[in-house]
Amino acid sequence: MGKSVAQVVASGPDSDFSSIQQLYFSIINSATQYIYITNPYIIPGEALKEAMQVAALSGIDVRLLLSANSDGLLVKWTVRSNFEDLLEAGVKIYQYPDGFLHSKVIISDDKLTSIGTANLDIRSFEQNYEVNVLLYDAEITTQLKQDFLSDCKKSNQIDYQHYLKRPKLERLKEGVAKVFSPVL
Fold first, then answer.
1. Tens digits of per-residue pLDDT, 115-140?
2. Taking the CB of the first residue and of the last residue of the chain, which one, N or C, has fewer CB atoms within 10 A?
């Protein structure tokens, strides 16, 4: 029999509290060494974005791994609209080039893993029915950490200084797309 301790966290439009958003917020704020997030739709609200920024500014290794390919232009530009603020704070962003990366995993400090259906966006937190499993297991978390780091090696890391020099048209697309972020 397995010896992992697991906790199921579910939320949906009929929930009084956004449980998964609170879970993500708690993981980020509790980290002391690292937070590695794999998610195709990283469109955080202000609280989660600020939590990631504060963690990175505090010396915690915060990394985001998302697909270089998007399944929609509006989503692509909305996700990218958060990059500058996160990069400026020291969050490392990697774009996975092979296919469409659809995993939703957060790992932290070699002891905690969240795996589930929830994206890191308001739609998953408030409009969709979602479920994540929180695993308190150092062995599983360490294995997933190695997989994450291996995927980062295959990915393109976005450089902050280079990102600042992106074309004005890209900035415009990001700005327009950001307006739609609450409904994506």
1. 999 999 888 898 899 999 999 999 99
2. N
pTM of the model: 0.93
Cβ pair 145, 36 in contact under 8 A: yes
Rounded distance between C-alpha atoms, residue 84 and residue 95, angstroms: 15
- Structural domains in the chain? 18-183 (3.30.870.10)
Q: Which amino acid is at 88?
A: E
Q: What does residue 112 show for φ and ψ, rounded to 5 degrees?
A: -140, 130
Instruction: Please give the Cα distance from 87 to 172 (Å, whole number).
Output: 18
d(CA 115, CA 106): 7
Give the pLDDT confidence score for residue 1 in this predicted structure.
45
